[in-house]
Design brief:
This protein is 75% helix and 2% strand. The chain contains 18 helices and two strands. Strands 1-2 form a two-stranded parallel sheet. Strand 1 (433-437), helix 18 and strand 2 (453-457) form a beta-alpha-beta unit. The longest helix has 33 residues, at 105-137. It is globular and about 55 Å long. The model is unreliable at 203-217 and 428-458 (pLDDT under 50).
Length: 458
């Protein structure tokens, strides 16, 4: 059901995030290379904290516009962030001093500040729209499958974007062309979105447990108030709280591998004088290709494993994979100086990302019957964790990396412990249910007849 819908939606996100992920992976290195030190960390932190708050607050407009319209509006405004990279690209290519009025710290920071705010605000609509659209496409027995399909497309963006970077980044002229191509790809994904069809309304679509205010019965202010009320209800619910540490862990994976790991690899190659600046960018891109391949493969493998073993065992697997990545990264940082070992780091962190995100997203899609609110909360918490991680990484840029590894390890273990109390719905399947009914004949017809029941009529 809705396979074509998922293919087109996945293609849109593949194109858009092929541009964003590639730029994100190179951001900290680009700014350090031109002498702006930790500015890259702070720009990315603004992106994620703005995105987090936007995800929390944009649910009512996303519902009113509809998931497709919200995503279509969000993409071109978000892609303005890609255009900001043309400024350092031109300055570096033409050799303009960073003390000039165009290429100095203040104008560069101002351009990236404004565009990062645009990106953060509008990607909130993009991702809440995606979560809502996925919920509209899903039926009770295929939410996990659709999440797996979408995740494969999303992580292929790491493969294709960074493969393109590793081939193109060989000269300053090519770097400028590279920025232009990524901007065109980002904007072009909005054209693909125009062909996204409406989900097929099949019997068995997941129902909402919270009332959705119809547009004809409510103005925007009332709808926003009710949406915020239901969003905060999910935000402070015990059910959602059991997932928070794993969601934070997913955010820290983004922090480490898309900002910290490229900087550490750049430091190592610079000290050993193995590569030029452009060669280092290509080496980072190759590491990110391994990350993307492992992430996509992990999404497929762990998705099937979760379907076979159940979501509770899936949470155990997330913990095992995460702790393995922590130990491998610690070993590579302190016991080897070979650049090739960073390929292993890319693989294990790709497996981390491919294990934690699909299982959490599958839980949100299948265990929470309302689509918009859980995803709004999810992206808010994940983005806020990424924001805190980036701020700390920027402030303690040259601190020993084992401190961050130890912190992530503690969060992984604590996250698993909190998920032990999550009430998985699939564990109650097949169990008899007692239904208290005032009208046996009417209510019996409304209930799912696939489950054995005991009626008590008054």
């Amino acid at each position: 059901i809705n396979a074509l819908n998922m293919f087109i939606c996945g293609l849109v996100f593949l194109a858009f995030y092929a541009a964003f992920n590639t730029l994100q992976n190179l951001t900290t290195g680009i700014f350090e290379e031109i002498g702006f030190n930790q500015l890259g960390f702070y720009i990315l932190s603004i992106v994620y904290v703005t995105f987090g708050f936007s995800s929390l607050l944009c649910g009512s407009l996303t519902k009113r516009w509809g998931s497709k319209k919200a995503m279509t509006i969000a993409i071109p405004f978000s892609a303005l962030f890609f255009a900001a990279y043309l400024l350092p690209g031109y300055c570096t290519f033409y050799g303009i001093e960073k003390t000039s009025s165009m290429c100095g710290h203040v104008p560069t920071a101002a351009v990236f500040l404004v565009t990062s705010l645009f990106y953060g605000v509008f990607t909130g609509f993009l991702w809440v729209g995606q979560g809502l659209y996925l919920g509209e496409c899903a039926v009770d027995n295929n939410a996990d499958i659709l999440q797996g399909i979408f995740w494969i497309f999303l992580q292929c963006s790491q493969i294709f974007g960074n493969a393109f970077a590793s081939l193109v980044l060989g000269s300053l002229e090519r770097r400028l062309i590279f920025f232009w191509v990524l901007l065109v790809i980002g904007m072009g994904s909005a054209i693909i979105m125009a062909f996204l069809p409406a989900p097929s309304q099949k019997e068995g679509l997941l129902k909402s447990e919270f009332p959705i205010v119809k547009e004809s019965q409510s103005d925007l202010c009332t709808e926003t108030k009710e949406n915020l009320s239901s969003t905060f209800r999910v935000l402070f619910s015990k059910k959602m709280a059991t997932l928070y540490l794993y969601v934070c862990y997913a955010g820290l994976v983004v922090t480490y591998f898309c900002a910290v790991a490229p900087s550490l690899l750049r430091d190592m190659l610079t000290k050993q004088k193995i590569e030029s600046d452009l060669g280092i960018s290509r080496a980072i891109a190759k590491m990110m290709i391994c990350f993307g391949i492992a992430d996509a493969a992990g999404g497929i493998f762990f998705g099937k494993l979760n379907n076979a073993l159940g979501k509770r065992m899936g949470m155990v697997i997330v913990m095992i994979v995460g702790l393995t990545a922590v130990f491998v990264t610690y070993y590579v940082n302190y016991y080897t100086v070979k650049p090739s070992y960073w390929i292993a780091v890319g693989i294990v962190w790709g497996m981390c990302d491919g294990s934690v995100n699909p299982i959490v997203n599958a839980v949100l899609a299948s265990e929470f019957t309302e689509k918009a609110e859980p995803f709004s909360v999810y992206y808010f918490v994940k983005s806020f964790a990424t924001f805190i991680g980036l701020i700390i990484a920027g402030m303690y840029r040259y601190s020993p990396p084992y401190i961050m590894m130890a912190g992530i390890g503690v969060i992984i273990v604590a996250g698993y412990m909190t998920t032990l109390s999550f009430p998985y719905g699939d564990e109650n399947k097949g169990k008899p249910r007692a239904i208290l009914s005032l009208n046996h004949s009417e209510d019996a017809e409304l209930q799912d007849m696939s489950q054995p029941k005991c009626y008590v009529s008054l």
